[in-house]
Amino acid sequence: MSRSSIALSNLRAVVIVIVLAFHSVLAYLASLPAAPYAFNAAPYLWQATPIIDSQRWFGFDLFCAWQDVSLMSLMFFLSGLFVPASLARKGSWTFLSDRLLRIGVPLVVVVAILMPIAYYPAYRVTAIDPSIEAYWRHWLALPFWPPGPQWFLWQLLALNLLAAALHWLAPRWHEGLSRWLATAGTDPIRFFVALVAASALAYIPLELMFSPWSWQNYGPFSFQLCRPLHYLVYFFAGYLLGAHGLDRGLLDCDGALARRWGAWVVAAFVGFVLWALPTSQMLEGQQASSLVKIASGLGFAIACAAGGLSFLAVCLRFALARTRTLDSLSANAYSMYLIHYVFVVWLQFAMLAFALFAVGKAAIVFAGTLALSWGTAVVLGNVLAGAQVAQFKRWLRAIVGERLALIKQDD
């Protein structure tokens, strides 16, 4: 395993811990209203903050704003990194069948089963009739099926399908851009500028059309109206870097990005301020001018790029050693993402009964979520590694492969 691969694996471990921390503190934001959101009232804001606690700390608002700007873009970027090698090894159709099984099937199970369990406390805190039967009636009466944090996986699956289609239709579509990236390793600023420009072009027009806080729900699909094209840019930016090579250019542990990690951390802070200042004039329904919105959108593009590159730089510089803890977190990160939200919401709900300060409650929720998600993921991984389950997965993969092969022949 190369040094860059170890650093990226450790970064995946760091990211899942931050995701769990992000969701764990949402109940304690100082910007939340005094009362919980009504379960049946549009725009159904309880999806983002199912539990609202009376204990608050403004530091959590800053942490969540920072992660919302940089972390989600980084997750799409990291997801795209490993796609080219997988496509080259498996081909479009085998890659597609594997992605449908690895992402699509667990996603359907989690959204259909775990999300109703996770969101019951959001109904319970405002319900007149708290019974499970009443909750199920209200759930089915919603005009959509809440996916929770799994909105990320719906969009990730769609981007993987797009990558497979491009590889099938034009296998060499990325070669020119990948060659350009060969020079970016010695000058990460060029990559940063290109990423900011592409992101701004993808994000700002949609931000001007829609509020940065607006979400749209269709059945089990949910997305932030101004961000789908922005996430597409980051996914394919990662794709192009992965096609160039995981140990070269920007991802070289001895390269310019890793050597100047301190400068990128400072850039991430500056980028966050450039986004936060104009965005603060758009909160709570404030009417902002187009110039303020454009400044906010440009700040968002800068903050995302600088934040993501700072994470990469720090891990490429310092996270080069393998440990059992980081290896286990990295190996189980996907399963932890799928299941963690149930533990987050129920632990936040349980903490409502205790007169404890916000930081203490958040620490308990985070520690409990990390332990329960991690332990469950390890057990689940051991179960799925069993011979009978492995045989079922091979059978299911063969069935999907046969169906896709028939579609390919028809084309």
List its traits.
411 residues, mainly alpha, two-stranded antiparallel ribbon, 16 helices, 71% helix, globular
Give a nutshell description of this structure.
By secondary structure, the protein is mostly helical.
| Proportion of strand residues | under 5%
Computed over alpha carbons, the radius of gyration is: 22 Å
**Which structural class best describes the helix and strand composition?**
mainly alpha
Number of domains: 1
Strand order of the largest sheet: 1-2
Average pLDDT for all residues: 89
Q: Profile the largest sheet.
A: 2 strands, antiparallel
Specify the overall morphology.
Answer: globular
Encode the helix/strand succession as letters: HHHHHHHHEEHHHHHHHH
Spans where pLDDT lies below 50 across 5 or more residues: none
Please count the beta strands (DSSP E, at least 2 residues each).
Answer: 2
Helix content: over 70%
List the SSEs and their pairings:
Layout: H1 3-25, H2 58-81, H3 83-90, H4 92-124, H5 132-141, H6 151-169, H7 175-181, H8 188-209, E1 215-218, E2 221-224, H9 228-244, H10 256-259, H11 261-279, H12 290-318, H13 324-331, H14 333-351, H15 358-384, H16 387-410
Antiparallel strand pairs: 1-2
